[in-house]
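>> Question from a student workshop board

For tomorrow's exercise we were told to take the sequence and the ligand below, predict the bound structure, and bring the output to class. My setup keeps failing. Could a helper post the expected result so I can at least see what it should look like? The ligand is NAP.
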Amino acid sequence: MALIDGKKIANEIYENLAVEVQKLTRENNLQPKLAVILVGDNAASLSYIKQKRKACEKTGIQWVQFDYEESLTQDELLKKIQELNEDNSIHGILVQLPLPEHFEVPKVIRAIDPHKDVDGFTAYNLGKMFLGTEFEDLPPCTPAGVIKMLEYYDIDPEGMNVTIVGASNIVGKPLATMLLNRGATPTICHIKTKDLKSHTINADMVCVAVGRPNLITEDMVKEGVVIIDIGVNRKDDGKLCGDCDFERIEPKASYITPVPGGAGPMTVACLMENTVKAAKRLNNIS
Ligand code: NAP
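>> Workshop helper replied:
Here is what the output should look like for this input. Compare the format with yours to find the bug.
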């Protein structure tokens, strides 16, 4: 078994990006800038924002944060997004999810200029991804991070039967598309899937993004399986765990991602990459 060390890969990405950002600043007078909007004070959101801010500090990407009370109206938020869309000094816009219940998330995401959509959530960026790897410009960060982890460990999805558990627009569905683009045969499972085990037991790779501890157990996977655990759950003792029974599956797997330290850091690293990419594209720098 080999552990997939997402934290290590993320740190290497930060080192490379820091050099690139320095060069852009020096040669093009361009310092990429990420605008982050936070509505309310959801504890998980605060923790995610802290990680993203730290990553900006490591890479030299500028950070500007707009904090609003939960009482912010949708029109006020849309107006702020429009203002950031039109501000040439801003290259990436991120609205931290979840938003309070009175917001219509699809409408909010739709308001973001796709060229500044560094989360890769807009229909434009998701749609382009369907056309093939060469159109994955600002890809959604979590699936893009998974692909980077596979590449780093020379795990080629071509020809693999991959079962993806969880079918959200930000993880499961785009991950299936990216793997399909790379020659895998993906199966996507969700809450209505009958007999989940029948889909996981013969899979060469199982990717899980549900948010339920121990959803995938040792008896559900085959010897030599590659396990990509994207789920994040907080246990009673305050520690984090994924969706797989890590302890029992680990000896059986050829590769496995830990939680924390796998998909999480890679998601943030891909956000940084997208921000630099967006800044370059908006300024016609190749
Ligand atoms: P989501 O939008 O709630 O989607 C969860 C998906 O899992 C849905 O497709 C749902 O099916 C499916 N599902 C729920 N219960 C299931 C079950 N018992 N069996 C099979 N499928 C089931 O969540 P998300 O935003 O994709 O996030 C999923 C998990 O990944 C969470 O733990 C989240 O914290 C984590 N996450 C981690 C990162 C990271 O950077 N590491 C990034 C994003 C998300 P239906 O669609 O049919 O309801």
